[in-house]
Amino acid sequence: MADDSLYGSLQVRPSGWDYFELDDILACQEKIPCTFETQVKDLGFLDHGSDSEHIEPATKMELPFWLAKELCARQRKIISVELPKVYREAYRQILEADATAVDLNKLGPYFYSVGGKLLEFGNAENPRIAETLMMTYMKRMRRLMDLSLNKLDGSKESQTLLPKLDHDEHNVFAFSQEGLREFEQWKQGVISKLTSSKTVINQRKRKRTEDN
């Protein structure tokens, strides 16, 4: 059984929290499978597989997350949301078997962000999804940090790993590599002062914003 504390720790923030962050905007554009629960008049042209003037009940369509959330948030639900296949049980088992071998970028460039956002829909599988996201991140992060803090991105191992990373992992790798380069330059006397990483700086800025 999934640990409810993991599920709770991955509860997503309000959708407006990252309104001005480009990465969050792009993640909200990712499409998720939906089924219309009621007729929507005059929008049948959106369903390329139908000649109807309207979108009829039981019509299946992929919609961007931001739109699906709005259509689900109304008092009378217009759509119901299904889990994208990469978050279903079959893929969760693959990740649990060997998360480090999976090409997350192929599953979705914003795998973690979209997975976290899916928790907003109150699916019965939410605890398992949250557990898998947390487990996948922790297992992959060990290898990612070991590589990014010990070898610069020109290495063969780095070139093999980079195409398999999701966007968040790419950012972690890039920030770690920047720190490693500065450390090497400092050891060689090229620079005289080490600076805080962008990750730390961004966390400080966000904390100041929250405090205000």
From TrEMBL:
Protein keywords: DNA replication, Nucleus
Pfam families according to UniProt: PSF3_N, Sld5
GO cellular component, one term: GINS complex
Domain of life (superkingdom): Eukaryota
Segments passing through the bilayer: none
GO biological process per UniProt: mitotic DNA replication initiation
Domain DNA replication complex GINS protein PSF3 N-terminal: 20-72
Principal localisation: nucleus
Residue ranges of every copy of the GINS subunit domain listed in the record: 89-186
Cellular localisation: Nucleus
Homology family: Belongs to the GINS3/PSF3 family.
Assembly behavior: Component of the GINS complex.
Function according to Swiss-Prot or TrEMBL: Required for correct functioning of the GINS complex, a complex that plays an essential role in the initiation of DNA replication, and progression of DNA replication forks. GINS complex is a core component of CDC45-MCM-GINS (CMG) helicase, the molecular machine that unwinds template DNA during replication, and around which the replisome is built.
Protein name: DNA replication complex GINS protein PSF3
Native organism: Paramuricea clavata (Red gorgonian)
Organism lineage: Eukaryota, Metazoa, Cnidaria, Anthozoa, Octocorallia
